[in-house]
Design goal:
single chain; 424 residues; mainly alpha; two-stranded antiparallel sheet; 20 helices; 1% strand; globular
């Protein structure tokens, strides 16, 4: 049995087992097996949208005040989601929408792995899929799962290799950006293109994004104000210092400086990745290109959202895209890329399974150490992906960087020679 068939069979069995548990063991009890904190009524994250229509009918702007939401949360989504209200969607349709979102996510999980998926890679992917972080998104009915589906559509279109399919893929990515903003960080997937095409498409995408952001600027302020800045079940550059500030306010500045120093360190690793060519192959074949495309989308989204500040852990779902390429580097390369890939995989496991680890480790080591383990894993993934995304850069970027470095070295040598001659 091929790795892909084994993966799909195990995926189906896992979903079936979840269904049996829901029926026989109970909805909330099943989620508690993964230590997932449930919210009732179900699909809580969708309800900021579906209940917003009633708030609008009451005369409120749901982005400012959303009293119809069961928890009083504002709708921290762009207004394009209000189109659902024009279609007649309201709070009574929440469960149906949640089921649709989860079904689309399952379809994406079924089709996104490359055809040549190896058995060992399937064995790594499956426990990540059925991890607390990913299942948290399913329990909440979070629209990040819809974005995962759209990013999978992008990958499927890029596999076709035609200009029309590439154009539709970019349009799909931009549509995902219009829905939730952060998918713009998936633009590194354009690195698959030749230099002139990459420049044209990147400029076009950034122009569209800039115009859209300018048009909704006032709403962006409201969205940011209405988005909780979590320090639990979260990852991002602000999580550590905000967590410290809650118990030791005087230490907050020092930890904030430490966090941004870490960002600078990741930038240094990214530069090293540009100059590292260990084990690099020539032009990738179709399957290798598919792995690279998925990796660039997943790592770009993780790195970009990490820098934004605070993200709920269900957004770690996009790390699934990175696994096939990480496994390829870990198994077939040597040197820095292999070690970085292995560390990224380990860090991903610790991060997405944090809720279960927390259940067993908290009584033994305390909450602080458990938090430190999770936060450390998030930063390890951040550092490793910063290096590996740069390492994956196409040859036209790497050769340009090498040429610039050689030129600087040559100019430095000439200056040294001139200084020696003047000294004589």
């Amino acid at each position: 049995m091929t790795g892909l068939r084994l993966y799909r069979l195990a995926l189906g069995l896992g979903v079936a087992l979840l269904g049996v548990l829901f029926v026989g063991y109970g909805y909330e009890n099943t989620w508690q097996l993964w230590n997932i904190p449930t919210m009732s009524p179900c699909f809580a994250d969708l309800r900021t949208i579906t209940h917003g229509v009633r708030s609008r009918a009451m005369g409120y702007d749901p982005l400012v005040e959303n009293p119809a939401d069961p928890w009083g949360r504002t709708m921290n989504y762009p207004r394009i989601w209000e189109i659902l209200w024009q279609l007649g969607v309201n709070e009574h349709h929440t469960v149906y929408l949640g089921i649709v979102v989860n079904l689309l996510f399952l379809i994406a999980l079924y089709v996104f792995p490359p055809r040549t998926l190896e058995t060992v890679t399937a064995a790594i992917l499956l426990p990540l899929i059925f991890s607390p972080a990913v299942l948290l998104g399913a329990e909440r009915g979070n629209t990040d799962l819809l974005i995962f589906f759209l990013m999978t559509v992008v990958l499927l279109l890029l596999r076709r290799g035609s200009s029309l399919a590439d154009a539709i893929a970019l349009a799909t990515l931009l549509f995902a950006f219009v829905l939730k903003l952060f998918p713009i960080f998936g633009l590194p997937v354009l690195l698959r293109e030749r230099k002139p095409v990459f420049i044209r498409l990147s400029l076009l995408a950034l122009l569209v994004a800039g115009v859209y952001l300018a048009a909704i600027y006032d709403d962006l302020v409201l969205i940011r104000q209405g988005t909780p800045k979590g320090t639990q079940l979260s990852y991002g550059v602000n999580v550590l210092w905000m967590r410290v500030a809650k118990s030791h306010a005087s230490w907050a500045l020092a930890f904030r400086v430490l966090a941004y120093t870490g960002v600078c360190g990741a930038g240094g690793l990214a530069l090293l990745g540009l100059f590292d060519s260990a084990g690099r192959e020539g032009t990738p074949d179709m399957e290798a290109q598919t792995r690279l495309d998925a990796f660039r989308i997943g790592s770009g989204i993780y790195l970009g959202t990490f820098l934004l500040g605070n993200n709920w852990d269900y957004r770690l779902v996009f790390l699934l895209f990175t696994v096939p390429q990480l496994m390829s580097w870990a198994r077939s390369h040597t040197g820095h890329p292999a070690w970085m890939a292995k560390m990224a995989i380990i860090g991903t496991f610790v991060s997405v399974w944090h809720l279960v680890i927390k259940r067993f480790l908290n009584p033994l080591a305390g909450e602080t150490l458990t938090f430190a383990l999770d936060e450390g894993a998030n930063w390890v993934v951040f550092f490793c992906l910063a290096f590996l995304l740069s390492y994956s850069a196409p040859e036209w970027i790497k050769s340009g960087m090498s040429y610039a470095r050689r030129n600087r070295g040559a100019r430095s040598n000439r200056r040294s020679q001139c200084a020696i001659i003047r000294g004589l």
